[in-house]
Design brief:
Shape: globular
Order of helices and strands: EHEHEHEHEHEHEHHEHHEHEHEHEHEHHH
Number of helices: 17
Largest sheet: 7 strands, parallel
Radius of gyration: 21 Å
Number of strands: 13
């Protein structure tokens, strides 16, 4: 079976990890995989998916007609049995370009609960048009399955839920707080003592780093030895730095930028803060579970399916509720760590990369009649 995966995000993100992990699994189980992806990420993907054939394509909305023609031309050249499209952006362009082709079409939206009203309305209008031409949907959480049924009118039989998963090695890694804290303290020139909290992810409106930064003055006043870390970069970076410059205790706030080792380094924290305004099924929280790291997150999309009851959940966009939840966790971290330790045992059975890959491959074989 030849499968074409289509992915487009401006920077490597959770969707990118999903696609690369899935592609590596499939090539290891007898599937030939081609990948259409952003030209700027070719080198990174060559390292992550050496057995896949890579096809660079920039999907700029300003070149709509040209993008549609290039996508269909590439698909004809590759001649796959099945095309699997990932994410709302490429989910629009690629499905529109590949309608009525000789291939089967599968779509994983990853994120469906867009918070901006105009985008949300346009998204569902297009989804109602494209859904009947899509052979199957693979969602990363049950919340997205329910949205596709309720808002998109998709028949339940056409949807499977395949949760994002970690490899056995990731689950076996366990907590490495002391080692990672020593490394990070040396990197930043700070002491290893005190309360450390942080956020991992793109610095954009969706991920809510502005909310985390807004509660820092009150946390810094309550815990004079606390430090706040941000891993990642993005469009909000300059705005956040301008706000940081006016903050009290700004010397205890650390912007680390994008770091490939962020998933390991966050083990140095006492608490991970994840105040996303919307999400799919975030890998960052899976990594936190694997490392038994306490979390405060927002109850959006698939997050309650992942963290409940071990994580402290609060409503999205509410800095007061976020502050209250963070304070409650920091006031007594021992029970939070114990809860994450217990939850890890259940999560490592439910959220395995091998399980995710097998479910998706079975879906492919079913709709291709193999």
């Amino acid at each position: 079976m030849r499968v074409l995966q289509v992915y487009y995000e401006p920077c490597f993100s959770g969707i990118g990890r999903h696609v690369s992990d899935l592609s590596a699994y499939l090539t290891g189980h007898g599937v030939t995989v081609d990948l259409i992806l952003p030209p700027s990420q070719i080198d990174q993907w060559q390292n992550r998916c050496p057995a896949c054939r890579l096809w660079p394509l920039a999907m700029h909305r300003q070149e709509g007609g040209r993008v549609l023609w290039q996508l269909r031309n590439l698909a004809r050249q590759i001649a796959p049995d099945l095309v699997h499209v990932h994410g709302p952006y490429s989910g629009f362009w690629a499905r529109l370009a590949l309608l009525h082709g000789p291939w089967r079409l599968v779509y994983t939206p990853h994120v469906l609960s867009l918070r901006r009203p105009l985008l949300r309305r346009l998204h569902w209008q297009w989804e109602c048009y494209l859904a009947p031409h899509t052979d199957a949907f693979v969602t990363v959480c049950d919340a997205n399955r329910r949205l596709l049924i309720g808002r998109g009118g998709v028949a339940p039989a056409r949807i499977i839920v395949a949760y994002n998963g970690l490899s056995g090695a990731d689950w076996a890694r366990g907590p490495r707080r002391t080692a990672m804290r020593t490394e990070l303290a040396a990197l930043q020139g700070i002491d290893t003592e005190g309360i450390w909290l942080g956020q991992v992810g793109r610095l954009d409106w969706q991920k809510g780093p502005d909310l985390t930064l807004s509660i820092w003055p009150r946390l810094a006043a309550q815990w004079p030895d606390a430090h706040l870390f941000f891993w990642g970069n993005g469009p909000l970076q300059e705005t956040l730095l301008a706000s940081w410059y006016r903050l009290p205790a700004r010397e205890r706030v650390h912007f680390l930028g994008w770091r490939q080792s962020a998933a390991l380094e966050m083990a140095a924290l006492d608490l991970l803060v994840a105040p996303s305004r919307w999400e799919g099924f975030p890998y960052t929280l899976l990594e936190a579970l694997a490392q038994e790291l306490p979390v405060v997150a927002t109850a959006v999309n698939g997050v309650p399916e992942l963290l409940s009851p071990s994580g402290s959940l609060c409503p999205p966009g509410d800095s007061t509720a976020l502050l209250r939840a963070v304070r409650a966790q920091l006031a007594d971290l021992a029970p939070a760590r114990a809860a994450m330790r217990r939850e890890k045992e259940s999560a490592r059975r439910r959220f395995r990369l091998t399980k995710q890959g097998a479910q998706v491959q079975a879906c492919y074989e079913r709709i291709c009649g193999q």
